[in-house]
């Protein structure tokens, strides 16, 4: 931490997760003289949604997540979201490689590993869907190298556990991308904050909670009310630009900021749980992220997957997540979070979204009332020979899905991330969940473009951004040769399979 505490920093970042870390790195690289205060109410960085145990998915690149490629009423596959996410993840890898090459972070093997990404389905209807999805994605260079099979023997070679004990003649199918990754965003976030804390003009405050935020008479500055949770001391810094990246806590702060652009936004919290394998022999036999199809009414974060991860240097195997409902907006939040978020300007959209999402409500009730045996049955759909003694229940993170005004329905539940900014660009807020962390680089570039438009257009910033992300300003999907070169480079720097 810098010796001089800034009471009027240029920038305030709220929340010490992957989003604030990424934005902080960008801003310090683009404006070396900038002063930044970062406030986190917990005692460590990346302890909420960015933490490996809390994150519903790691290394989202749309290779295997079927909810990113919905089947349309005419039977065709909508690939637009998958292509966008895959392109965004490539930008993330380029940025991480830049940080490693510059020596800003070290030991990439501690936060990113190669792991095949698979989709797996059963039943004639689902097999037909997966084949259509595969065919649709083959049109795009980003998905070249994807393999498809309906051969049980090949699937057993790719992921033995999902085929062991599978009886009957029910058709099965799978796709595989060998260049998939597993990313521990907790480790990555903490690595970035280690560097940021060493920089002149940057102060990181743990156990400090932002209790208030409002426009200052010193416009366009913002006045914040900060409470030191250890001492009870309160400070009131001013800032020219504020970014709220506090996960589920962002909605309350958006409401306190009281900007017109934030009216009508609400939040619907969804909690989660994992089954974590405790049998080393079972863990050793699986080496892939295998995603299936979500149940009717399930939110995207609840897409079931049997998932190999590296956490704290140890190979882990998780299944889930099992969805649940809590009125908390954060894992370490309050049960009053949801009721306190309801205001006159968002109660209409929230009620309307609830009415139009009755299947989701029914699904969550079923999930909350699941017994140990019910969870085992869900696991056995993916691992037929699973035994309950090999698995234990682990609490996952808390997500808050965005509710926003909708002209047709009155209110709409969004399953993604939403950036909201004031008209003058002095405040930006990030709401929502999946794909979140994996696309943090692209999301933060969007924030910078919205809030620093003049600088963003300058040749100096464009040159710096191309140093950080060599493909910046170009579509990798439309330039296969550049895509190939970028993948080879990032794979070499990060130690990944290409």
Automatic annotation (TrEMBL):
Keyword set, alphabetical order: FAD, Flavoprotein, Oxidoreductase, Tricarboxylic acid cycle
Catalytic activity line of the entry: (S)-malate + a quinone = a quinol + oxaloacetate
Listed cofactors: FAD
One GO BP annotation of this record: tricarboxylic acid cycle
EC code: 1.1.5.4
Pathway(s) annotated for this protein in UniProt: Carbohydrate metabolism; tricarboxylic acid cycle; oxaloacetate from (S)-malate (quinone route): step 1/1
GO molecular function: (S)-2-hydroxyglutarate dehydrogenase activity; L-malate dehydrogenase (quinone) activity
Family designation: Belongs to the MQO family.
NCBIfam families in the cross-refs: mal_quin_oxido (TIGR01320), PRK05257.1-1 (NF003603), PRK05257.1-4 (NF003605), PRK05257.2-1 (NF003606), PRK05257.2-4 (NF003608), PRK05257.2-5 (NF003609), PRK05257.3-1 (NF003610), PRK05257.3-2 (NF003611)
Protein name: Probable malate:quinone oxidoreductase
Taxonomic source organism: Flavobacterium album
Lineage: Bacteria, Pseudomonadati, Bacteroidota, Flavobacteriia, Flavobacteriales
């Amino acid at each position: 931490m810098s010796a001089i505490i800034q009471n009027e920093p240029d920038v305030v970042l709220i929340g010490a997760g992957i989003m604030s870390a990424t934005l902080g790195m960008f801003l310090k690289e683009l404006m070396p003289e900038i002063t930044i205060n970062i406030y986190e109410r917990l005692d460590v960085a990346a302890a909420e949604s960015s933490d490996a145990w809390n994150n519903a998915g790691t290394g989202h690149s749309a290779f295997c997540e079927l909810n990113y490629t919905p089947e349309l009423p005419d039977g065709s596959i909508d690939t637009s979201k998958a292509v966008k996410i895959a392109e965004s993840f490539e930008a993330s890898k380029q940025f991480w490689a830049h940080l490693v090459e510059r020596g800003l972070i070290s030991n990439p093997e501690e936060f990113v590993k190669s792991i095949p990404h698979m989709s797996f389905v059963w039943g004639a209807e689902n097999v037909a869907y997966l084949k259509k999805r595969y065919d649709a994605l083959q049109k795009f260079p980003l998905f070249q190298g994807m393999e498809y099979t309906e051969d049980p023997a090949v699937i057993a070679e790719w992921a033995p556990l999902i085929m062991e004990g599978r009886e009957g003649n029910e058709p099965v199918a799978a796709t595989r991308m060998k260049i998939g990754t597993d990313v521990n965003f907790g480790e990555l976030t903490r690595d970035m904050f280690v560097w940021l804390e060493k920089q002149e003009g940057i102060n990181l405050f743990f156990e400090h909670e932002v209790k208030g935020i409002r426009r200052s008479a010193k416009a366009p500055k913002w006045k914040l009310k900060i409470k030191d949770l250890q001492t009870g001391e309160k400070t009131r810094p001013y800032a020219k630009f504020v970014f709220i990246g506090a996960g589920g806590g962002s909605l309350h702060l958006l409401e306190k900021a009281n900007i017109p652009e934030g009216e009508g936004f609400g939040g619907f919290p969804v909690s989660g749980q994992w089954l974590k394998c405790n049998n080393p022999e079972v863990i050793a036999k699986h080496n892939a992220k295998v995603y299936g199809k979500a149940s009717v009414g399930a939110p995207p974060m609840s897409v079931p997957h049997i998932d190999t991860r590296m956490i704290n240097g140890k190979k882990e195997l998780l299944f889930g997540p099992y969805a649940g409902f809590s009125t908390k907006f954060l894992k370490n939040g309050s049960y009053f979070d949801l009721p306190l978020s309801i205001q006159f300007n968002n109660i209409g959209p929230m009620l309307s979204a609830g009415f139009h999402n009755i299947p989701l409500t029914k699904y969550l009730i079923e999930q909350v009332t699941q017994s140990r045996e019910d969870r085992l049955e869900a696991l056995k759909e993916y691992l037929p020979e699973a035994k309950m003694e090999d698995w234990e229940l682990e609490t996952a993170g808390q997500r808050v899905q965005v509710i926003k005004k909708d002209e047709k329905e009155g209110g709409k539940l969004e399953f993604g991330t939403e950036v909201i900014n004031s008209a003058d660009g002095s405040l930006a807020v990030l709401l929502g969940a999946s794909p979140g962390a994996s696309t943090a680089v692209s999301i933060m570039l969007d924030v910078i473009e919205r809030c620093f438009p003049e600088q963003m257009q300058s040749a100096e910033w464009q040159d710096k951004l191309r140093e950080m992300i060599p493909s910046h300003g170009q579509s990798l999907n439309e330039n296969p040769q550049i895509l190939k070169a970028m993948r080879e480079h990032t794979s070499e720097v990060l130690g990944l399979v290409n």
